[in-house]
Amino acid sequence: MIILSLIFWLAGLALLGGGLWLVTLDGSWYYALSGIVLIAVGAMTRSRRPKAQLLYALFLVATAAWSLWESGYDWWALAPRLGIFLLLAIPLLWPAKGGSRFGTAVLLPVWAIAGVGLLGSMAVDPHRIDGELNREVVNETPDLGDSPEESWHDYGRSNMGQRFSPLDQITPENVADLELAWQYQTGDVKRPEDVTETTYEVTPLKIDNSLFLCTPHNWLIALDADTGEEQWVYDAKVPDESSRQHQTCRGVSYLPPAEGDADSLDVQIASAPAEDRAPIQCDAQLFMPTSDARLLAVDPNTGARCANFADNGELDLMHNMPYKQAGFYYSTSPPVVADGKVVVAGAVNDNYAVNSPSGVIRAYDAKTGELVWNWDPAHPDDTAPIAEDETYSTSSPNSWSIASADEELGMVYFPMGNRTPDQLGMYRSEAEETYASSVVALSLETGQVEWVQQFVHHDLWDMDTPAQPSLLDLDTDEGRQPALVIPTKQGDVYVLNRETGEPIFPISERPAPQGTIEGDHAAETQPISDLTFRPPTLREADMWGATPFDQLMCRIQFKSLRYEGQYTPPSEQGTIVFPGNFGVFNWGSLAVDPKRQVMFGMPLYLAFTSTLVPKDGADLGETNQGEQGLNENAGADYAVEMKPFLSPFGVPCQQPPWGYVAGTDLRTGEVAWQHKNGTVEDMTALPLKIRLGVPGIGGPVITDSGVVFLAASVDDYLRGYDLETGEQLWETRLPAGGQATPMTYLNSQGEQMVVQVAGGHGSIGTTIGDYVMAYKLPQQ
After folding, report:
1. Is 376 a catalytic residue?
2. Most buried among 353, 503, 516, 677, by the most CB within 10 A?
3. Catalytic-labelled residue, pool 462, 464, 520, 665
4. Please, are residues 346 and 289 in contact by the beta-carbon 8 Å criterion?
């Protein structure tokens, strides 16, 4: 009894102390009152056991009522509130020896009803939306781009960025029969000196019967598409650089041979490193951007550099940059090859320095490497090639993700980021404000702006537009329109006419929170699309934890930080940013089916915190260790600290689910279904395969048969889904995190293959590896 009393006292004191702190922050009184009750129960357990049982029974009734009032009938909300208190009740269920059984007679049924009610909530999913996407084929002959049916010639299969394959051998009926056909390990593994965000996010290209992919340290690899046998490897020999925020490569780009040249590849198996081969004249070319700011042109047959492009196949992307800090500028995404040009954008380190390289977008002749035009958002009208002795503007908004192109309209579409620093807006010019956090359509011929649509005004939250636009022809009340579909970090999906930039789905403006540091301002309104996956505004009741104790600490954090809803400006106090830095959508984008005119997405909900740290001679300690953490903003008065909003145990402070899959009809904007995605199997010490709805980063692929493939989540699985209903049809365990977008193609035997790169993601802590995994149906 002494031990039981002590347990109640300690639990009560913890809740009382934290609860009083929460009350001073104008938070819930529940925890302080609970602490008083538990201390009283602890005092009663030895000498007045029936009274302890009665008091505890009342406490369980009150806690259950309060929990249901705050969160509804939801297991993941109720279990942390009730679970530990139901366990603490067990020693009280037996009457004291020779004592009254009255207390037990009251406590036992209360405990049983609360326990059964809690267990019953496991069968209820209040977050699930059930429904079906239309099966009807709306457009029998959609434009799928110029990638052959059996191949995958661009990052999103074609420059249209649809991530849709016309293949249909793998169906909802047989997808469960998929088996491993082959696997390959690149040998490029994470190094001790690498930055935290070393990630393997590549989607391979399939051209003729070879796969081409890059690795985080910029090895370009050719594999036999039938067997996975290595054909050649080109190592770009990228030097290590600790000042990079990212060490990744999402893919390479392909320039087909000109008409009259050989129309198919003859890929050779190299007996020596491809980079040692002498440069040659190339008919076809592969382009790989490197993390030390080069663009390489390589012969797909041999891996030799292309002598006809730039300096023997190597173009220095730091040319004409105003600042050239090593590791501050590089391209992590493949360039666009269209209209005889290779169009290159790049990432600029967030929040490292006010004076950083430019975010200029440049088009080069794809055969020669000659600069054709350059579009710098700070000087948007001056697109003629810059002179040798001139420099681009400092730190102008950049485009770090994947772009799309429509050669028939003569436009290339770039998702735009922000000028660094992200949280300090006083350094931006009017032109930079116009093009930041937007999608911009540029003329392929001249680089001039055709139109721009902004998604965040005066962005102070790192709400870069992160995703490749998907292009399709969409049936609307006004007829069939050339559409562009693009998701954003804040959860909106914008559907625009890609010729004019006019909204197809309405866009409205909503008032936004005000109040910034001196010298800055916040936009009075922010745009929102009629098609949106934005989450509701967080409440104290949404704070979560495995137990009431860490839930209480999250509530204290929530009430201590500044938060007035989405777009609360960053502050010295610390601001909650929700959706957070990962966004509801990120570079994995969406997949669209241009025949059925529907889309498949993976909405993610994780809050971050943003704190402005005054420098004023202060010793900041270690800075610039990646996108998360404390970054210096050299030249500014404030550093900034960005991190996920986590409990003391490293668990998200807001209540799950954190990740979903969702299907939407693009003609109506209706979300037909939305389901929790992913399990906690690789998030906890115990391998519990509980479908909680977990975070992820990566993208989906749709096939014509209505099967969708997606890995992405923080458990190491590749999954197949039914596009119509969202139901999971198949999964396979991966040897490492699958934070890359899969692809599919036909091998030389006419068999449909599905390929997933599994290499993990440093920022979200998934298993690191170097695997390329290929699956197919068993031979009949």
Report:
1. no
2. 677
3. 462
4. yes
